[in-house]
Amino acid sequence: MCGIWAVFGLTSNIHGQCSSTFYKISHRGPDAWRLEYDQRMKNCCVGFHRLTIVDTIYGMQPMKLHKYPSSMVICNGELYNCKRLAEQYGFEYETYNDVECILHLYHEFGIEECVKNLDGVFGFCIVDIAKRKVFLGRDPYGVRPIFKVLSETGVLGICSEAKGLIEIEHELKGDRKKVAPLPPGTFEEYDLLENGTVKLVRSKKYFSPGDKPAFRPFVLYEDLSPNAHTDNIRKLSH
Ligand SMILES: NC(=O)CC[C@H](N)C(=O)O
Questions:
Q1: What pLDDT score was predicted for residue 47?
Q2: Quick one: pLDDT at residue 19?
Q3: What pLDDT score was predicted for residue 238?
Q4: What does the pLDDT average to over 80-95?
Q5: Is residue 68 part of a domain?
Q6: What was the pLDDT predicted at 137?
Q7: Which residue intervals define the domain Glutamine amidotransferase type-2 in the entry (predicted)?
Q8: Is residue 229 in a domain?
Q9: Distance CA 45, CA 154 (A)
Q10: Cα(164)–Cα(17) distance, rounded to whole angstroms?
Q11: Rounded to the nearest whole angstrom, what is the distance from the C-alpha of residue 15 to the centroid of ligand 1?
Q12: What whole-number distance in Å separates Cα of residue 154 and Cα of residue 177?
């Protein structure tokens, strides 16, 4: 599973929220957890509960790379084409973890090409401190969950489960806000303001069921038959 959790721009009781709300999703990651505060992003905190799948040591998140020291990613997901992306675009990975490809794709091609190139299941949040941006992304069919709450004053909370946002929602008294899932096949871009609050720049549906994927699939469409379903499943699962 893994659990991602972050708040941006929460001026009241951020320490309390970190210690109470973040732990509401601790069942999602039995192996390790980490909460990160960086003074370049005031009133923000980014956290992760890990169920390790690949690269136990260096795959921990929030993930930061030597190559891109001003950004980080948290992701609940499995990216099946991470090795192929490295071959295709010449990425030099610093870890063996699949999530690393998100940062390379984002920095090379921007957020839209980044999500479109991912073959897998994912709910992620990238923070680019240098460009003062926050991005959310969810896989085409919404296999991995991601919920968010955004107040009128620009306080943003994100979490793999709605229960990790309820107390934040209560904290934003009198401010119109609602916990809602990020729809499948969607990414969002926010400006990160000086005080840590955010401003929505765009919310874009990059994939709808029936669209062909933009990445190179492991089994080509031409190799699938419109009628031989069992054969198709056999090919896809190899
Ligand atoms: N469970 C997850 O979401 C795992 C995240 C990542 N693929 C890892 O192996 O660490």
A1: 96
A2: 77
A3: 67
A4: 97
A5: yes
A6: 98
A7: 2-193
A8: no
A9: 15
A10: 10
A11: 26
A12: 10
SS3 of residue 12 by DSSP:
coil
Please check the confidence at residue 9 and state whether its pLDDT lies above 80: yes
Q: Give percent of the chain above pLDDT 70.
A: 100
Examine residue 182 and state whether it is found in any structural domain, yes or no: yes
CATH number for position 101: 3.60.20.10
Number of domains into which the chain is organized: 1
How far, in Å, from the CA of 138 to the mean position of ligand 1? 15
- The pTM (predicted TM-score) of the whole model is 0.94
Q: How far apart are the first and last CA of the chain?
A: 23
Say whether pLDDT at 71 is over 80: yes
Distances in Å between the Cα of 204 and the Cα atoms of 103, 135, 136, 154, 214 are 19, 11, 10, 19, 16
pLDDT at position 34 is 95
Examine residue 217 and say whether the peptide bond preceding it is cis (omega within 30 degrees of 0).
no
Label residue 64 exposed, middle or buried (CB < 10 Å: 0-12, 13-18, 19+): middle
Average of per-residue pLDDT across 61-89:
97
Question: Mean pLDDT for the chain?
Answer: 93
The residue whose CA has the least distance to atom 7 of ligand 1 is 78
Tokens of 44: 């923000």
Say how many Å lie between the CA of residue 55 and the centre of ligand 1: 9
**Domain extent at residue 7:** 3-223
Q: Is the CB of 214 under 6 A from ligand 1?
A: no
Is the Cβ–Cβ distance between 201 and 191 less than 8 Å?
Answer: yes
Q: Is residue 235 part of a domain?
A: no
Ligand 1: which atom is nearest the Cα of residue 1? 1
